[in-house]
Amino acid sequence: MNRILVKIVGDEKFVPSYSSLFAAGADLKACINNDIMLSPGERALIDTGLKMEIPVGYEAQVRPRSGLAAKHGITVLNTPGTIDSDYRGEVKVILINLGDKEFTIKRGDRIAQIIFAPVTTAEFSLENALDVSERGTGGFGSTGV
């Protein structure tokens, strides 16, 4: 899978693009008409102007941009956000400001990255018992900090 069909609600500058030769994620840009200011702790749903047709057997994952997270505390709230192959609406990104200063998002800013991955569909089988493992039912923190 190398081809993703896209439809842009706006102009071509909102087509995702890779920032370096071997980048795994393509940048998603804010397709907004007015600046959006995020105060600390505030979140917003940001339009990207992008609709796409993901091939069956694949998903798109929306992830944070490391620079925004490290420098400003801006991240994707439901990371990674999953876009299923049968979704045809506009891709939107839920950004949250976990930093301590206001942050302004402007039209065309790179706000997140998108990665495409194969999907494995599971078949669920109802059983009365499961095999015992060494870990057992140990959950959060059970293997150490």
What does this structure look like?
With 145 residues, this protein is mainly beta. It has one domain: Deoxyuridine 5'-Triphosphate Nucleotidohydrolase, Chain A (Distorted Sandwich), CATH 2.70.40.10. 5% of the residues lie in helices and 34% in strands. The protein has one helix at 66-72, and strands at residues 5-8, 26-29, 36-38, 43-47, 50-53, 58-63, 74-76, 81-83, 92-97, 103-105, 110-118. The mean pLDDT is 92.
Which labels suit this protein?
single chain; dUTP diphosphatase activity; 1 helix; globular; 145 residues; Deoxyuridine 5'-Triphosphate Nucleotidohydrolase, Chain A; mainly beta; hydrolase; dUTPase-like; 4-stranded antiparallel beta sheet
Number of strands: 11
Shape: globular
H/E element order: EEEEEEHEEEEE
CATH architecture: Distorted Sandwich
What is the SS-derived class? mainly beta
Radius of gyration: 19 Å
Number of domains: 1
Which stretches of 5+ consecutive residues score pLDDT under 50? none
For the record, the CATH class is Mainly Beta
Record the strand order, biggest sheet.
2-11-6-8
Q: How much helical structure, as a percent, in the residues?
A: under 10%
Mean pLDDT: 92
Kindly, what is the distance between the CA atoms of the first and last residues, rounded to a whole number of angstroms? Answer: 39 Å
CATH topology call = Deoxyuridine 5'-Triphosphate Nucleotidohydrolase, Chain A
Largest sheet geometry: 4 strands, antiparallel
CATH superfamily assignment? Answer: Deoxyuridine triphosphatase (dUTPase)
Strand percentage: 25-35%
**Helical element count?**
1
